[in-house]
Write a structure and sequence with these properties.
Blueprint: H1 18-32, E1 39-43, H2 51-59, E2 63-67, H3 76-88
Parallel strand pairs: 1-2
Amino acid sequence: MIATRVTWIFLKNEKFEVFTLFAKFFRLVKTQIGKSNKHLCSDNRREYVNHDMSKFLFENGIVHEFTYVDTPQQNDIVERKNRHLLEVT
């Protein structure tokens, strides 16, 4: 398993844009790098749990792993990255 800590930032105005941005990101990585995402880890918020997202993940063989909502202690790496990005901006 190869895991990277490369950060891609996509700005959105509304929560409903998450699926569209993820689909674009998936195609970008597949086209430019020649690799596919295999896992998506997210909390159980509605923007990640919906019919379109579930269908897209299933069709592309992506495993969707969930954490609990509002439990930042479950992923220290992401929380540190978020803090860093906020400090930089």
